[in-house]
């Protein structure tokens, strides 16, 4: 049977956010997209728009100034979404750990799916993380689809669509 | 019959063209590039994502933009009036601009503003192109234009100015200030997500078909010349896209109006007097 599941693994669009990083990991991420490593051959686009992104690449220990933006960006990415913490700072706080102006890693605020070690994280590791993130993306998508099937209504749609569907299902029940 | 097949398949042909273009661009940079069917993978993925609707008119404008562009492509393939097609294409762009102004995002407004400025720059050249083809063939009818021999020697300057506005239309460097994703995050398309963005994505593919159909008009009745022209322009546009940086929107207007409009007017005046 024709299924979309063979296709959606092939187009991960990434959103890159610097939560107070020293720019080391950011340069490595850009190196991934450059001709030498060529992450685009997996269908990756570095789209700066959270509403169209699938994979959230975060670098840096979360500084006090950047945490609100981090959460805003995370909530603006539509489900299914995957978060990658790139570099030691984003994983644990790295050399900035327990400093007065720094949160220790991004997993204090948002759920992280893939941790990438290294200071700075190497392009090979980042590429590996993106490939693993694509598998996790696929898994999350399956869960969402099965939940949709289970309730036979678009539970993840906007409120007003839900209302109309619930009303319809109630009406069906009455009949 | 064959026309209706082409019209139905126009978004798919555009998507294949876009996928091929991404490969060509990657090979120019000594990269491997994504697979040919990448635009289809993107579309299927976008269908699986959750939809964030801003409000109904915003979604409707994207839909109207896509449908109107499809109609433009259909009219050109069917050989309808060229001037009418160009004005309908203007309407499609205006739907996109209204979509940009209908939400409160500053980036969306800025993108719509730039889209308007770019429209001011390239629309006169498109209309002058139709006028030039009219002076050469005596008809605005595309099926009539296609029966004449190639108008390239007489309308060379008009062809060059059309080649100048192709990067504006396809949002390529150096004229991609309208959707510059590093500074205004895609401009008008910023608030679209999931399958609503898919309509803009497919519209982008249809723009490819529209532009290259216009290029093929200069070849007249010769199919081989049409293919040659399209291939040449395709390669040149990608070469320029890979080797130049983005210019500001003011410079875009100066360059397009300065070179393109003057070249077009020179060509038409020349046709009239010579």
Automatic annotation (TrEMBL), chain A:
Record GO terms (molecular function): 4 iron, 4 sulfur cluster binding; metal ion binding
Keyword S-adenosyl-L-methionine applies: no
InterPro entries: Complex_I_20kDa-like, NADH_UbQ_OxRdtase-like_20kDa
Cofactor(s) listed: [4Fe-4S] cluster
Signal peptide: none
Keywords (A to Z) from UniProt: 4Fe-4S, Iron, Iron-sulfur, Metal-binding
Domain of life: Bacteria
Parts forming coiled coils: none
All copies of domain NADH:ubiquinone oxidoreductase-like 20kDa subunit, residue ranges: 22-132
Gene3D superfamilies named in the record: 3.40.50.12280
NCBIfam families assigned to the protein according to its UniProt record, in alphabetical order: PRK06411.1 (NF005012)
UniProt family annotation: Belongs to the complex I 20 kDa subunit family.
Stated name of the protein: NADH-quinone oxidoreductase subunit B
Naturally occurring in which organism (per UniProt): Candidatus Marinarcus aquaticus
Automatic annotation (TrEMBL), chain B:
Residue ranges of the TM segments: 6-24, 51-77, 83-104, 116-136, 148-166, 223-240, 252-273
Subcellular location: Membrane
Keywords from the named record: Membrane, Transmembrane, Transmembrane helix
Keyword Cytoplasm: no
Pfam families: NADHdh (PF00146)
GO cellular component, one term: plasma membrane
Membrane topology: Multi-pass membrane protein
Name of the protein this chain belongs to: EchB
Organism: Candidatus Marinarcus aquaticus
